[in-house]
Write a structure and sequence with these properties.
Layout: H1 8-13, E1 14-17, E2 20-24, H2 37-42, E3 46-48, H3 54-60
Antiparallel strand pairs: 1-2, 2-3
Length: 64
Amino acid sequence: MPKLKTNKGAAKRFRKTAKGFKRGQSQKRHILTKETSKRKRNLRGTTMVAEQDTGRLAKLLPHA
């Protein structure tokens, strides 16, 4: 049986935690002048991946 390969794109975007996978927020790279301060503030930090998507991520990151 061949070795399991990690999906490198997913490895750069997601980290495994005890309760699932954490991810960064999207929509905060450019064209931020039109966004309100409240929206930009709420996009800071990380959040957890939805429970429905954790199975798919576990296949992409077999060694996580």
